[in-house]
Amino acid sequence: MGDSLKIKVFHINQVEVGEKFHIVMDKLQIRDTMNNVSPDIQKFTMNVLPPGHLDVETNTIMDVIPISTKVLGSWGNGITHTLTGVSVILTGRIDEGEQMHEFGSSEGILSEHLVLDQPGTPQSGDFIIHLDILAKKSTNFDRKICLTMFEEADRYIQEIREQVKLLESKHANEVHEYIDIPNPGKPKVALVKQVAGQGAMYDMMLFPDEPSGFKGGTSIIDMQNMPIYLTANEYRDGIIRSMN
What we know:
Layout: E1 4-11, E2 14-17, E3 22-24, E4 27-30, E5 41-49, E6 57-58, E7 60-65, E8 68-72, E9 78-84, E10 86-94, E11 108-109, H1 110-113, E12 127-135, H2 143-164, E13 174-179, E14 203-206, E15 218-219, H3 232-236, E16 240-243
């Protein structure tokens, strides 16, 4: 028997702003403030967008980020908790300067630039936690400021993850188990996927501390774009974080 990965799904039906990060049953409470931001950041703002309320003006979309966390075990095995019904969207720009984009920006009315119900995008019924980061005026648009913005967003999301870790398994709405079964003597099948690794917003993070996270990860660029072997369960577990 190979490694077993259990992904336990908890559905959120309400997201509200309060004094602390907290989850009670299907209600998520988050704070609208962020402490000790990087000195390169002018402003960090958060808004909750209910389902169907996407006719708002935003800066360019940097990423759509699911909320998942490791509870037990290492990558590709053990237990991972994940939330449905809520997604995080990160947007950003430089104050009085450039939008944080790569190969075309998407600032404007969010509903005109975000396609829902697609792999990697929010569902139509999702609450969206909109994080917007404004870099200080005259900041150079380079890889450093991009990574700083992703890091700041990840610090905020980690506050939510810490609450997701505490959820009791018996309250999970769904449980999906994936067993990596070895088959000695059978043909070995590999899926080869070329991922982004050019710089700035066109980047890919691997082996972060948390599923689809940032902290602790290593950029494919810093790995010199060398091939990396991953198992199917590691991939399912969110070991790759696309940042574009």
